[in-house]
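quick one: malonyl-coenzyme A bound model?
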Amino acid sequence: MTDSLYALLESRFPADRSKPLLETEDGTTVTYADAEALAARMARALSDRGVTKGDRVAVQVDKSPEALILYLACLRAGFVFLPMNTAYRPDEVDYLVGNAEPAAVVCRPDDEATVRDIAAKHGSPHVLTLGTDGSGSLADAAATAPAAFPVVDCAADDLAAMLYTSGTTGKPKGAMLTHRNLAANGLDLVDSWRFTADDVLLHALPIFHAHGLFVACHCVLLAGASMIWLPGFTREQVVSLLPRATTFMGVPTFYTRLLGGTDFNRAACASMRLFTAGSAPLLAETHEAFQARTGHAILERYGMTETGMLTGNPYDGERRPGSVGFPFPQVEVRIADEQDRPLGTDEIGGIQVRGPNIMKGYWKLPEKTAEEFTADGWFRTGDVGRIDDRDYLFIVGRAKDLVISGGYNVYPKEVESVIDDLPGVVESAVIGVPHPDFGEGVVAVVVPAGDGAPDEAVVIAHCKDHLANYKTPKRVFFVPELPRNTMGKVQKAQLREEHAGVFGG
Ligand code: MLC
Ligand code: AMP
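yep, here:
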């Protein structure tokens, strides 16, 4: 028996494959049969170009039905799907392609020339394009390929996807996710959240991260359900389409934006049974305002790229504002001290996790991988929390130097390295401070060299050239020196305090 995730998904597709898998904003319907056939054609087109099982397929394309089907094609053929944030600049794509050595890179038609240069530099043999309107060389190749391609046999431990996350070193690391990792987590979620074939998920998340791709799509695919497929989050569109949906998943920014107008109310949510939130902390006040306005308690859950979803508030039972609930069925969670000794009720410590959902490791980084696991096999999340006497988990902070802005992770070290490269900069410290829309907003505190030092606009423009826009500081402040403790460590907590009101938060 195969452990291919595609085989598992396919086994749960509806018997009647003419059922819609998704419908787009313009009313185009893609049935399960359409998706299966196009996945087979895309797999064939890539395979004809020499892509084989275990090869990485790096993808930076705008959200479309075809983009999702490309993921299915990779699963079907045993290729390792490597999605990239569409906001990544060429420098960022260059690093990922150089590191992952993909056999093929699929990009937006407009980016083809740049991506060809990057691929050539790193010896990646094939560059294909995929537009949002069914255009592009991959779409063309798939159109003429036969709609037949076997579901390639995969072992549980074979890689299904690789998603890059940055880190304290500033360089992104590829989290290797296996067929077992994704299958185990998907099955936990579809059951815990009671997805059935009757569900319609309004999908407004990007599909290059775990939330929009795995959490959302696997629930739908494993239930044989349907989606309304939006290219991204637009408040008006979501409010107007919610009455046709039963479920919705979002980052906290989606929910604060939805609450920003009175047209979002009980009537708009009349057909809904479930709202889930994650990727960043949902403020208790947002949870409460949402419940008061709609009658729905948002189900907040907690997860990571490396681990999939870890805990969630109960489907039945109290969904507590500020808590991320209980471990999913196959997941174990503990709070531990610095020596990895388990702590008791309400004691604050590192959140450590175990289960079939935890990644195989970081691509080509065995030592870094080993550091992230304890001697007894628990993964260190880098988050700090406590478990109360009713077993609810509360995240109280982060041990890792990470900013989460609108659900996207920003690793300060990566931004600091880019700023420090500017002539006239001695050093910089990047922090996250409260932001009314994005939860946290990125701020840079820069020590200028004196004459010839850049101003705020120059620092921002330089960052935009080299970094995705969400990583770019929204404000830059100049100081004669950074506050340091006696060990010489920059006191980021102090900087965060000093700049806490920058965004009026
Ligand atoms: C866009 N901008 C952001 C930003 N998104 N800046 C900071 N943080 C963000 N998240 C920039 C834009 O480029 C623009 O910059 C300016 O901010 C205003 O843009 P906007 O039009 O308001 O942004 P919009 O396109 O509406 O995007 C906001 C958003 C989007 C919230 C809809 O960021 C989003 O879809 N976030 C979801 C993130 C997500 O899916 N995370 C899951 C990770 S998985 P300028 O300078 O051009 O004006 C994970 C695991 C888990 O973490 O547990 O789920
Ligand atoms: P990523 O690397 O993008 O997968 O981000 C994972 C991180 O997002 C976690 O380690 C947490 O710090 C954070 N996160 C995810 N969900 C939540 C949540 N519900 N509340 C607070 N933080 C969260």
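The chain has three domains: 5-179, 233-398, 403-498.
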